[in-house]
């Protein structure tokens, strides 16, 4: 329940009696950052006197103070929009924090905006919907049980935009992070939870992808460490799987099936195939190592250097 006080020469208090079952319309709060980085400080929001809660919409706008929310509490919100050049931080030095978004399509990150998930931070999106991603989701610092986590319940689509720039609209993990699903019984890694990566978007860095992934974009092992495909099958919707760093590994611990031609491109590093990889796309290997303990089938291409540890099948 939110209470607001407005003074116009005098204070007028009105008590509203709302009948049971009445739907309370969501309020829209816009971040001003006039006081500090504390989400729970009403002075940082344009409406004043209250902060957004589970029924409301929060817009993080860029501001002249360059002051943006760093969650010091667990927050539940209906929708979150991060505008261009703005950011929101979950985790960091404030202990374990979770940002829960209750609208399935309630997350929007605009161009050059950032949702940054730090150590102990988690973002939980309830239900299936569309994530409007022109800016980046960054999963930074932390590992193991403290790893930054993006949780998906249902099917979440990373939306393609005609105004997408090459460096925007990505999910970037600078530490070992988790992309998880939820089955309602406390288990993160459910077959019913799906992340659809849109055309032109990229997932890159150090992460373990536990949800069912449909790759229409680029999954990219681009830095030292592992990018792991685990728990549930991964589907290629015509997207590219890429390894480009000398000390990077794309580790395949679950079946990968590319029904629409998606290529595996390795110029450095390693691809470790511990489960079936079946693709109508091409294998492009100009460097690095492919270590296949299970059958890998491609319709085009093949191993181009002697480091390839087959069975690799191609015409």
Summarize the structure.
With 315 residues, this protein is mainly β. Helices cover 0% and strands 43% of the residues.
Sequence of secondary-structure elements? EEEEEEEEEEEEEEEEEEEEEEEEEEEEE
Number of strands: 29
Query: Strand-residue fraction?
Result: 35-45%
The average pLDDT value, as a whole number, equals: 75
Mind summarizing the main beta sheet? 29 strands, parallel
Instruction: List the total number of helices.
Output: 0
**Rg on CA atoms, Å:** 22 Å
Distance between the termini: 66 Å
**Structural class computed from helices and strand pairing:** mainly beta
- Please estimate the helix content: under 10%
Shape: elongated
The poorly predicted ranges are 3-20, 160-168, 302-315
List keywords for this structure.
315 residues; 29-stranded parallel sheet; 0% helix; disordered N terminus
List the helices and strands and how they pair.
Blueprint: E1 28-30, E2 57-60, E3 75-77, E4 79-82, E5 87-90, E6 97-101, E7 107-109, E8 114-117, E9 121-125, E10 129-133, E11 136-139, E12 149-152, E13 155-158, E14 170-181, E15 194-197, E16 202-209, E17 212-215, E18 218-221, E19 225-229, E20 234-237, E21 240-243, E22 248-252, E23 256-260, E24 264-266, E25 270-273, E26 277-285, E27 289-292, E28 296-302, E29 312-313
Describe the structure.
This protein has no helices and 29 strands. The protein is mainly beta.
